[in-house]
């Protein structure tokens, strides 16, 4: 039984990047052998095991055979006879198909180290085209390593274009598309990710609303916004994703949420920013407008929503609102108004809400 470090850990170590997780491939072993050594199998039909102490993933060397459509239509085949080279051949890119032995030596049958040195992303074999998810993965890797000068090999570009033109992306679920977007947001390279998808012609397949709005100008704007967010250590995904939908209509945002299955908090912030940004950034905002905004946001029960929108606007403008402290002070004062004071005055029923609204409006009129 031989154990090798594989995939992203080897790639990032060779690039001098921080290795966040380590995956291993085990050659010449059976599930029974690993179970006897205390490994915990993940799933019933997938030969991946968790190390008894480190909980890192150890996968039996395996091959995959396409059987059906989409990115899930694969039959996994594994046995002690599957070689390391067989296992590496099923991987997507040569830079992800490098293994490292315990003595530090590299096993690199497909030229991944040379492609790393030349900053090239190249598919390992024609089997690449069997998995449409790899279109998004290549775009994500190209975006993540764009700052290092990585480009996609010409033959891989041709294969990606062919897959896209054949409608392969239509087999991906909206939930799976979001997961790739989520990973790119975590990478801090979402502007590059969207731009690469647009250049490939893939953006229109996964989100027509985003594609129709895409332009070089928006790409540059997003790069600037994300650079500001990074400078402020802002990594909250709803805040970051909302920048990409900032110039869309509410209907477009809802369409994006259907084709890319946005989590509720991501979708809701995008819609709230769309509805209230113009009001909150206006230099002539009135007390009445601010009250309407607060009511629509249900700020009295959900005060965090207002803070989140202000943060989204700050990223968008690369600076806090000039009157941000004034807004926060006014809202804090208005939120301190207690309905009990009106009840103590003998006000009842629906009139309590009316009195509360008037009192809050009068507070805002002191500031705006």
TrEMBL record:
InterPro entries linked: CCA_bact, NT_sf, PolA_pol_head_dom, PolyA_RNA-bd, tRNA_CCA-adding_enzyme
Molecular-function annotations in GO: ATP binding; CCA tRNA nucleotidyltransferase activity; metal ion binding; RNA binding
Keyword tRNA processing: yes
Record-annotated Poly A polymerase head domain positions: 3-122
One of the GO biological process terms: tRNA 3'-terminal CCA addition
Alphabetical UniProt keywords: ATP-binding, Magnesium, Metal-binding, Nucleotide-binding, Nucleotidyltransferase, RNA repair, RNA-binding, Transferase, tRNA processing
Gene3D superfamilies: Beta Polymerase, domain 2, cca-adding enzyme, domain 2
Cofactor(s) this protein requires: Mg(2+)
Residues of the tRNA nucleotidyltransferase/poly(A) polymerase RNA and SrmB- binding domain: 149-211
Family, as annotated: Belongs to the tRNA nucleotidyltransferase/poly(A) polymerase family.
Protein name: tRNA nucleotidyltransferase
Species name: Pseudoalteromonas arctica
Organism ancestry: Bacteria, Pseudomonadati, Pseudomonadota, Gammaproteobacteria, Alteromonadales
